[in-house]
Amino acid sequence: MLKMEGYLNVIEEGFDRVAITEELYDNITAVYFRGDANVCLDSEFGAGIDIEITDMKSWMANYRSCEFWCSPEFGSQLENVPDETQGFIYEKTDGSFGVILPVVSEKYKCVLCGNENGKLTAKLFSWYDKLTYCHGLAFLYAEGKNPFEMMADCARLGLKLLNNGCRTRAERRYPEMFEYLGWCSWDAFQIRVTEGDLITKCQEFADKNIPVKWAIIDDMWGEVRDFYEAPYDTPQGMSKVMHTSKLYSFKADPRRFPNGLKNCIDNINKFGIKVGMWHPTTGYWMGIDPDGEIYKDYKDCLIQAESGHYLHSYEQDKAYRFYNAFHDYLRECGTEFIKIDNQSMTNRFYRGLAPVGEVARNFHNAMEASVGQHFDNQMINCMGTASEDMWNRAVSPISRCSGDFKPENKEWFTKHIMQCSYNCLVQGQFYYCDWDMWWSDDAQGVKNSVLRAMSGGPVYVSDELGRSIKEKIMPIVYSDGKIIRLKESARPVMECLLEDCEHNGKIFKVFNKTENAGIIAAFNIDEEEKAVSGKVSITDVYGMADERCAIVDYFTKAVTVLEKGEKLDLTLENYDDFRLYYVIPFQYMAYIQYTYRNTSLDGKQHDHQENTVLLD
Question: With contact defined as beta carbons under 8 Å apart, do 439 and 473 qualify?
């Protein structure tokens, strides 16, 4: 068991009572905090639990590296654990592992951080300075041999104990629409997207026989009149325009969609493409225009934040009225799904109005009620990896797990794969993870396609006009547009779990599984792009036993037979050197034909396969 000591942080001198309770459920321990004072608690750090971990060798912290996104950090000293850590895995000197998973309860949010005494601190805070107590579940922890199982068990038990309606990933319904290839307008057209450009892009897909089946009309299709007199000629200038602008009405911009949004969607539908619409929680980045139609018609549903911006209230009934009105319009225009951005904004806009747990639960309940009513829960959540969002979405199935895709940027790829794969360890317990869009004509297009095929989530491109390359897309898509989607979340292999592969000279590996085989992708993510080395084996795939197997190189078709305990040596020279392997236990291969083509990452046979390999 962990050694723990709890305390309250009060705004002024007063008395307090503190108790920490541990409840054991099989191999998982739930830690409850109960503290009462006669004065208000600090809204930033209302209560704490200092945790001592003995015989620890190394750790990985999945922490909130910015307002909206989480990233991994590695170390061996507890005082270096970053603030806002939302999932924590450590290895002990005896080779066993530990997992700590903080939760967001009815009022309080818990995160981890290191402290100056060489211990770990579980910080509990509400972002609300009128509470004199802190009661509830703080975190769950376990120690044992398998961190994958322990993380899953902690998440499952946490949801059961919180009993707030939130589900595990396995309990969420993955929408059939997202089993098919998609496209997003963002990288192609950005905030100047028009009906004409959208139709031209759809015609390109038809001409090239690329079977896109859904499309997101992204930022910003709506009526934002601040755009009208806001020229820009750089990405920085565009960002400034975006983040100083407000939404005037729920309707499409009449200058760029002169025939209305419904006409545009009807024309896109003629290509066999379903349409989803993007919008932020705030209407637009700086909220609702006080001179506009939304403010006039729904003023009673809005609040004015400390910053002066108007957005929907955190109160559930008012937030629902806002989303319901917005989604009524979108549904009437033919919208079939939704992407909602800017979700981890609770602290920025609702701070001080109510406790963080209450705020997040209210507005997510309102949002999901409207999305369920209008779009059958077909939603991509975005910019929402903060734990108050993660623990409070009841039914929506998909959530983005990384910052925005950056075309033609090798350094970005390393940040991307680290964010996505490690966030899948934590966020992937609750959601199907969206590894974001990509460009098929990017220099790293093949690497990006490998990641999307392994991700277990949706696959969609964002190519500019004229730049979609069928040959780069179709290896992970069947001819009818159905994607090759593995059923689990891609995660780092056990060997890499607590290793900083940007600095240790080792290859970085992620894994996923089909019904009878494993899939391993290996990358060079060395910070200086030096050659890296390592080994590949069947034990890299969590859940597969160490036995005789065949390692099949997806690109070269080379087959290596490994006996039990053997490993395949591998060196990757630079960022462009990467591998994708099938790992097939020999019990499924004796005297059979293993037939595959460049698209069959799922290990299934299909009528249009080729490139037969005989394995004996």
Answer: no
Other C-beta atoms lying within 10 Å of the C-beta of residue 187: 19
177-194 residue pLDDT tens? 999 999 999 999 999 999
Residue 224 structure tokens: 């934002």
CA gap 419, 519 in Å, rounded:
19
- Residue at 11: amino acid letter: I
Spell out a b/e string for 315-349, using b for 16 or more CB atoms within 10 Å of the CB, else e. Answer: bbebbbbbbeebbebbbebbbbbbbbbbbbbbbeb
Q: Report angle CA 61, 65, 69 to the nearest 5 degrees.
A: 105
According to the model, what pLDDT value does residue 248 have? Answer: 98
Q: Which tokens sit at 432?
A: 């199907």
For 286-299, the pLDDT digits (tens) are 999 999 999 999 99
For residues 499 and 508, give the distance between their C-alpha atoms in angstroms, rounded to a whole number: 9
Name residue 257's amino acid.
Answer: F
Q: How far apart are CA 123 and CA 2, in angstroms?
A: 16
What span, in angstroms and rounded, lies between the C-alpha atoms of 429 and 388?
15
Distance CA 162, CA 107 (A): 11
CA separation for the pair 257, 551 (Å, rounded)? 52
Q: Is 117 helix (H, G, I), strand (E, B) or coil?
A: coil
CA-CA distance, 72 to 63, in Å (whole number)?
6
Report angle CA 361, 364, 368 to the nearest 5 degrees: 135
Rounded Cα distance between 206 and 351, Å, is: 48
Contacts of 61 (CB under 8 A, 6+ apart): 72, 73, 74, 75, 81, 82, 85, 87, 88, 112
Measure the CA–CA gap between 71 and 531, rounded to whole angstroms: 24
pLDDT averaged over the chain? 94
Three-class DSSP category at 254: coil
Residue 390 CA: distances (Å) to CA of 4, 23, 400, 601:
26, 23, 11, 29
Confidence band of 593 (pLDDT split at 50, 70, 90): very low
Tokens (6 digits) for 164: 């707030």
Query: Residue 125 and residue 41: Cα distance in Å, rounded?
Result: 9
Contact of 112 with 90, CB cutoff 8 Å: no
| Closest by Cα among 154, 152, 122, 126 to 138 | 122
Q: CA 80 → CA 60, 61, 62, 118, 566, distances in Å?
A: 11, 10, 13, 8, 37
Question: Are 388 and 165 in contact, with CB atoms under 8 Å apart?
Answer: no
CB neighbours of residue 541 within 10 Å: 22
pTM over 0.85: yes
Q: Look up residue 308 and give its two tokens.
A: 């002066």
